[in-house]
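L-histidine N(Alpha)-methyltransferase, Massilia forsythiae. Tokens?
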Amino acid sequence: MLNQLSPDAPVQDAGLHQAAELDASLRAHEAFISPKFLYDPLGSKLFEAICELPEYYPTRTEAAIFEAHGGEIARVAGSGATLIDLGAGNCAKAARLFPLLQPAQYVPVDISAEFLRGAVERLRDCHSHIQMTPVGMDFSRSLDLPDSVRAERRLFFYPGSSIGNFTPDEAREFLQRVRAACGQDGGLLIGIDLAKDAKVLNAAYDDALGVTAAFNLNVLRHVNRLLGADFDVCHWRHQGFYNEQAGRIEMHLEARSAQQVTWRGGSRLFQAGEWIHTENSYKYSPSEAVGLLEQSGFAATKVWSDPHNWFAVIHARA
Ligand code: AVJ
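Tokens:
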């Protein structure tokens, strides 16, 4: 459900779905909270801080790939596009590519609508020639964009390995929808994190300062607001580690003690040591990443990587 606020404001998703979704996931045999709920205004700021951590290599490594290969990436992706930025956050990654990609229209999409609004306001001043169309919505549910988003030359931008939050099956399903939304002459520019040494991965998702722990725990405060729940953050502990078997980082919240948690329409007793699963972050080999795109119907792909092969930027033509 889209609800246009005003021409300047992001389009806002209705909150009812979210409450129902959270209620169901907290009742599940193995309780979970979708990682999209990590991104309230504070969560988005904590994620920005994560990107600055020495242990968190993805942001830096992806930026270095764009730095080293930006010219070629822009030639392959083409200029003058309708740039649709999925999970835009502070819009910084796309904004750095504006000089190279020269989009005609910029469409940042993010579930954290409030945070997005502020980011776009700052961006408008320095890029008055680019039409800015911020959209606040949960793009994992639907890619139905407002009519004000041009259909021609759509270039979807999905950086940072956010695709890793989906299971491979979900990722294919999602990428199929992106491809369908591309239109004829469109494409996708995506960043995908690559499988690597477990030590590097574990440090990146359980950093020394505890910023990732704060990011993970903050989801409980967000759920408290969305669902009228009474989670006590002090009673939970961050778990973040690489599950080599499954090829993914997992984040969980572990109950430090037995506790009853109550929310609008529900309640649950969590045992001491019980986990709430909050995130998966899948890691792929370059060929698996290309396979994912091809299985989703994308045509020609081109891959750029860093000298360590830690991260891949891929352009895929629709
Ligand atoms: C935004 C999903 C790409 O998986 O690396 C960072 C989120 N979680 N630290 C990732 C995240 C913990 C991030 N993505």
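Residues 50, 58, 160-162, 164-165, 205, 212, 279, 281 surround N,N,N-trimethyl-histidine (CB under 6 Å).
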